[in-house]
Amino acid sequence: MSSAKSSLSWPSVSLTIDARKLLFSLSSFLAAAITLAIVFSASLPRPWWALLTVYVTAQPMSGAFRPKMLYRLAGIATGAIVTIAVVPNLQNAPELLVLCMAAWTGFCIYLAVLDRTPRAFLFQMAAFSSAVISFPYIENPADIFDTTAGRVAEMTVAILSVSMVHAVLQPWSATPVIRDRAKSFLRHARRWSVEVLSGDNGEQENAYRRALASDVTELGMIAIHLPFDQRAAPITQRRVIALQQQLANTIPLASAAANRLDLIEREHGILPELNGLLVRTMDWLGSAESRTAQVGALIDECERLARQAEDRGDWPSLLAASASIRLAQFLNAFASAQRLANRIGSPGRLKISDGHEQSFRLARDHGVAVLAGAATAAAIILYCAVWILLAWPSGSATAAFAALITCSFAAHDDPSPIIGRYLKATLKTFPLAAFYLFVVLPRVDGYEMLMITLAPALLWMGYIQADPRRSPEALPMFSCFIVAMGFLARFQADFSAFVNTGIAQLGGIVTTLAVTRLFRTASARWTLRRVMRANWTELALLADIRRPFRPGDWTARSVDRLGQIAQRIVAARPGDDLHAADSLADLRIGRNVIPVRKALSHVPHDLRHDLGLVLAGVADHYRGCTRLSKIVPADAALLVPIDRSIDGLLAQLLDEYCRQALRALVAMRCNLFPEAAAPVLTAGKTATLRMVQGGRA
């Protein structure tokens, strides 16, 4: 009987609450309470605007929040100054006023999309703060100064309240987020590297590559926030930048090693010694318990095998040497990244050997930024034209909401899916706002009871905002809930006003969605082609010996573009020629151009001439890709100077510069001409004979 009872036990239901998310929600709610108290006491005209600013400004990660707070305050001030300067002077020409405000908003969005750092929030806030302040008063700008002062005061109180509360409670620190992101990257890199090195890199390769490149770029964005996070942040920031450099190196190095191994296996078969080294490398990568101290022996063995193969001087040996040295470089970068990831947030200074370099430069595209700014300006002109021509009483609110949404999502290639989710979240929140406005708030008396009754809804939405997967739903929920209820100094349950406000919100969202589909749906593929062309253009400049040589800047921008291409390639049609453009191969070729350029001043004149022909051929190849906007096969004539340069380097005493150039030329030949026959190398036989004779002597 007892056994029967035990088998009939009720299923247990556990409700798990994340403490960090709850702390963030409580922090935001406390900031909202302080903001409303100040706004009500000062009798500011729009308490709802201040309350909405609290939740728009709040960020779960304190380090990410503070720089954005400073830039937002500067953006608000800039937008207010522009509004006061423009609106009164053009009050008699509303068409010209709309044109000027649209041009200003588009220019700010252009700068925001171009910048891609926390500074973008300054331009973004300047854009839509001037829009939401000016549009409701275009037809009657007499009170524009008082209105602007009220909006600035409300937003400033909100931002300072959030800043103060988050400074005290610090819901999340950036340091553990960076550590988790780095370890996530390393886990993905282990899995991807094992699959690539084993030759089993089919359908999942692009997904892994996209995740890895995105993580590298995201680490650089987080590193910018670190000086605002803690006193020891400069040291941590240097570690994160060094970590980012090492992580960026792992992707092309693993891919290059796999490329050489594929060629060796297809043409000559992998030698037992190299195969055993590869197996031990994959065992180390595949084990979750592997330590960085164990990788030193593998790196030494790779380098020893590479030097022995290079001394033999024949083509199969050079391929084996190339695979071995790329494997060693990959293991070194991966182990360095693992050590740096484990030391993020720990005391101590960064050593030069840890890989400290200058900040990770992001790629910028003026064409993409111009498109985003022009689309935003055109959309705002269209909103205002419909509103003015139809003489719609709520048109100003619709234009303001539409401008806010357009500015918020202007940086996306195709914002329409996000705006569609924004619309759904808004529709789901209207019943809650109606319940509070017509059922709950009429029974509330006083500020204290107001905050107690608002707590369940605001805490719930704040908890959603703290969840990275659901945070996009939070902004429309807050916007609908707060704006629909009004939160004026005196309670007003006006059903017609509630409906008009709701229609204005929905109208702004629907109009934005329609305009976005009209102007921006084709931009994702267009942007992808532009990013690829920019990558090819910079590769041509890197190989041009007449141009300045800045390899560090090129590497950073190329890895950043690799992430952009990987994220956007899904927008291309299955048969599109864009799929044939291998951005990772371009990255590998660019990295091989660098040691060739460095070796130019360390080789004899004839060999320098051949190396110059190689670099000129690479530059011409990528100029052709840029001109045709698609990848084209390299000219077979380029094989002649490449093979002659390899033969010439083998005839030299291989110092460090010549050895690196030899390895780069072998890799470049494999990347540009993977199907070409093996070269005929005469100097390699002479070098081998000299080595044998030297050994006998």
Number of strands: 0
In percent, how helical is the residue content?
A: over 70%
Q: Which regions contain 5 or more consecutive residues with pLDDT less than 50?
A: 1-14, 352-358, 685-697
Radius of gyration equals 30 Å
Q: Measure the end-to-end span.
A: 93 Å
Mean pLDDT: 76
Structural class: mainly alpha
Major sheet characteristics = none
What order do the SSEs take from the amino end to the carboxyl end, as H and E? HHHHHHHHHHHHHHHHHHHHHHHHHH
| Percent in strands | under 5%
Q: What is the molecular shape?
A: elongated
Subcellular location: Cell membrane
InterPro entries: PHBA_efflux_AaeB/fusaric-R
Protein name: FUSC family protein
Keywords: Cell membrane, Membrane, Transmembrane, Transmembrane helix, Transport
Please tell me about this protein's structure.
The protein is mainly α. Helix content is 74%, strand content 0%. The protein has helices at residues 2-7, 19-42, 47-57, 62-86, 94-115, 120-134, 144-169, 174-197, 205-225, 233-267, 272-286, 295-312, 315-343, 366-390, 395-408, 416-440, 447-465, 471-485, 495-520, 523-543, 551-568, 583-599, 605-628, 639-650, 656-672, 683-696. Helix 4 crosses helix 6 (120-134) and helix 9 runs antiparallel to helix 10. The longest helix has 35 residues, at 233-267. The radius of gyration is 30 Å and the shape is elongated. The model is unreliable at 1-14, 352-358 and 685-697 (pLDDT under 50). The chain crosses the membrane at residues 21-42, 48-65, 70-90, 96-113, 368-390, 425-441, 447-463, 475-491, 497-519. InterPro entries: PHBA_efflux_AaeB/fusaric-R (IPR006726).
